[in-house]
Structure prediction request, 239 residues.
Amino acid sequence: MNASRTARDRARAELTQEIKNEARRQLAVDGAQKLSLRSVARELGMVSSALYRYFASRDELLTALIIDAYDAVGEQAEKAAEMAAEGGTPRERWRKACHAVRGWARANPHEYALIYGSPIPGYAAPQDTVASAARVPMVLFRILRETNPSPAFEGPPLTEGLAGQLRALGELVLPDGERIAPDLPPETLNRGLVVWTQLFGMLSFELFGQFVGSVDPTDEFFDHTIEQFADFLGLPPAR
Prediction:
């Protein structure tokens, strides 16, 4: 490869990272709704026209930040589950993944809000975000696929419409070619979806101050709840 091209590519990558870092700083101060390329360029000492060579619009910059955030929390969950897999039970993998997600959320509350908070008016996430957004739930679905647990207790039967939606979800092909969970019955997939949404609901309550005056600090409540989630999923007890 041409040396000058390599140097240009490296410089472009570094400036792209600087742009995203400044955008994240502004998200923390003003929120996503007020983010603009002009304000980012001004803080970096750039003219707006120069920044448009890196991101064509505010929405393109937001998409890059959203993908980065999904990838960051997904990587933490995957690593935690993989480390626990060495001699650990599915429940231990689940527990470690949940704590990794919570740790990332508490360390990066503004990025958490960007991907799991209120929708940004006028912004619609493109398909480019799907693979990254799927990383955390796929940690759970892989655990379920490997164990195919029997629920610890019976719940209400699925309607025909919901069962059809869940079968379609299981067959859904991600951008990397992996199907979500083609071998899981709809009832197990439904429990996985319930737990996934409840996990992030609990994290949102914690980060946005909804537990103040009740179970704050939230550590023991979180630990207890993810064990209940594991029971609901039918994961075997940890040794």
Summary: Residues 23 and 138 are 28 Å apart (CA to CA). Residues 3-30 form the longest helix (28 residues).
